[in-house]
UniProtKB/TrEMBL annotation:
Naturally occurring in which organism (per UniProt): Hexamita inflata
UniProt keyword DNA-binding, yes or no: yes
Name listed for the protein in its UniProt record: Myb-like DNA-binding domain-containing protein
UniProt cross-references to Gene3D superfamilies, sorted A to Z: Homeodomain-like
UniProt GO molecular function: DNA binding
A Pfam family hit: Myb_DNA-bind_6
Entry keywords, A to Z: DNA-binding
Domain Myb-like: 1-51
Record-annotated HTH myb-type domain positions: 1-55
InterPro entries: Homeodomain-like_sf, Myb_dom, SANT/Myb
Length: 195
């Protein structure tokens, strides 16, 4: 019987898993050699039976930046959840990313509908109000990002792939025009509520 895992060992194991995962495969032998007093089987069992279950229980609080980032990543890589998880969200499970992507998309569909047909929405329910307020915050975040990119005029080589994709996506004139029109429409709808 092996000795119990200390909190420090659990932390080290988590970090080593992130560092030693390639093509969705974890190199247990390398991890065990770094930990010294643990075998590859012990490391694997600790991960599968304890750490991975703890990760599943974590209720992830997403920042708006992470949500925008996830949207851009799915534009770049499609729905390669394992790849996105390993490279950008190592403490989340691919299923969590997929669920968040689905939530963002369903909100986006409703947001688009409200922006295209604002006259249909003279009365808004709480969910619709939350979607509009959320959309306004996202628009503000994107505008700040565009302003930052415009002010700094980065050379293409200084941008990481995610920034580059965002720049290519957002710099088109029709995208910016649509963004600003949607912002006006949302403000108008929310203003009607206050009256």
């Amino acid at each position: 019987m092996s000795k119990p895992w200390s909190e420090l060992e659990k932390q080290q194991l988590n970090e080593l898993i992130i560092q030693n995962t390639t093509n969705n495969r974890i190199n247990w032998h390398k991890i065990a050699s770094i930990l010294n007093n643990r075998s590859p089987v012990q490391c694997k069992l600790q991960y599968r039976n304890v750490l991975n279950k703890q990760r599943e229980k974590v209720n992830v609080e997403w920042t708006e930046y992470q949500e925008v980032q996830l949207t851009v990543l799915t534009m770049m890589y499609g729905t390669k959840w394992n790849f996105i998880q390993q490279n950008y969200y190592p403490l989340m499970k691919p299923e969590q990313l997929q669920l968040k992507h689905h939530q963002i998309n369903s909100m986006y569909v409703q947001y688009e509908e409200m922006c295209k047909n604002p006259d249909k929405y003279t009365v808004l329910n709480n969910k619709q109000i939350k979607i509009l307020e959320y959309s306004l915050r996202r628009i503000d975040l994107i505008k700040k990002k565009l302003e930052f990119l415009a002010e700094n005029k980065p050379g293409i080589t200084t941008l990481d792939p995610l920034e580059l994709q965002f720049y290519k996506m957002a710099i088109t004139e029709e995208y910016v025009v649509q963004l600003l029109e949607n912002e006006k429409t949302i403000n108008k709808l929310l203003q009607q509520l206050k009256q």
